[in-house]
Prior knowledge:
- With about 260 residues, chain A is mostly helical.
- Chain A is about 75% helix and about 0% strand.
- Chain A is built from 12 helices and no strands.
- In chain A, helix 3 runs antiparallel to helix 7 (about 115-130) and helix 8 packs parallel to helix 12.
- Chain A is globular.
- With about 270 residues, chain B is an all-alpha fold.
- Chain B has one domain.
- Chain B contains 12 helices and no strands.
- In chain B, helix 2 (about 30-55) packs parallel to helix 6.
- The radius of gyration of chain B is 20 Å and the shape is globular.
Amino acid sequence: xxxxxxxxxxxxxxxxAYPFEIIAFFASRFFALGFLALxxxxxxxxxxxxxxxxxxxxxxxxxxxxxxxxxxQDTKFGRYIQQLVNxxxxxxxxxxxxxxxxxxxxxxxxxxxxxxxxxxTTLVIGLVILPPMTWFNVLAxxxxxxxxxxxxxxxxxxxxxxxxxxxxxxxxxxxxxHINKILxxxxxxxxxxxxxxxxxxLLLPFPALIFTPTYVLQNQLGRVELLQLFLPALLWxxxxxITTRYLWQRSVKTYEGVGI
Amino acid sequence: MKExxxxxxxxxxxxxxxxxxxFETETAYFGNNWGNVxxxxxxxxxxxxxxxxxxxxxxxxxxxxxxxxxxxxxVGQFSFYLLWGISETNNQNLIKDINRGSLDFLxxxxxxxxxxxxxxxxxxLSVARDGLPNIILIFFLINWSQIHIGLINFILGAIxxxxxxxxxxxxxFLxxxxxxxxxxxxxxxxxxxxxRDNNQIPFEGYRPFFQFSLSFFIPTLLLSTxxxxxxxxxxxxxxxxxxxxFIAMMFLIIKxxxxxxxxxxYTSAS
Lengths: 260, 270
């Protein structure tokens, strides 16, 4: 673990070399959130009181935090792996006496550590706008964040693995990202979908990435509802861990590094 | 006159070489081409689903019916692919060149540098491959009998659209220039993604303060929301046409001036 902490620190220091980039990172994220808030404000106004603006904005602030902490959107960690494979730089990791995936993950986590500061900020804003009802909501949030991280990492690694088979796999990654954006609740909360569609969507792994952790923090939960959210998240976590492990081992065997 | 003709000839030769060179690179990865087609079709499907979910809750959004919203989406997609084809790859390459010092090699070439870095790569195949299916799909989705677009409004809106693309291209380019001073501008440049991602809100949905500042300082509303509004006859071109012309010219001048200033400050890698 000491090694991984050093990896995070080292990569974070590389980011600090460009302070204007850090400012731009925050500006970019807050502009995106601002436009989202403007959109839902305009929509709430158009609904003539049918939609409440406050919980919607709180939802998107908390969702932004979840997305950032778990890498639940845009599969950027997957892209990071793809780039290493395409440039042949992954050779450097394979020849080291380390576990490749955790090492890559902590390198990436160091490079994107400013996302954590942003996540804490948006989480606090979201909680101020709409505080959680009980401590149970906070506990459920923490548990679902862990599921979200597991599922997200598995998706990211699977997307990264595509580059072992095709040197340019951006198109497939983008296709996955578009599906993920709408089905995870990043673009629109799942509870705004018509009831039948919502129930089908909740059986998929995508809502566990962003919607479920955000939802359990903000809403009063009955036992049945909690189970409906918990079981798919648990099952998909197990399925994806096994699948990702298998695919990683299989893909690495096909890899032909330049110079090896 | 002869000097002008040879200048234009040179500019055209650079453009032609860029198009051919980019085409050869694009056709090298066949599998990824299919991935991109799938990706863009899924994107449109997601956006259509999004609009449908929204309109299951409201009848009109900022005065726009569902069909008018599709139209706004169509103009937004058209703008996206046009600008993506011209500036996206070139701006990202310019950041990399400054960061790695390879801009030196471009500056010593006997070509006008600003023109060259702006039009170095023109990915016509990618634009056609990704943009056309989307645009055709949305075009046929719109019930044209339910929206009213007059010829004059359409022409005026199209002119405003062109000015808007010029202004936004220049604005994007300005986001690259800090790399000359700081060495890196990836995150600064990524501001443009957040700033342009607003074509889901009609022009009429913004308060006057945002309508002005998001047109004048950050010309993001000129991309699709204002042209769509003019074409639909909702906003008046009488004031917006000269306004967008002024903004486009202003950003063109700023782009030229700051490019020269940036070059003077370029310390190069060697």
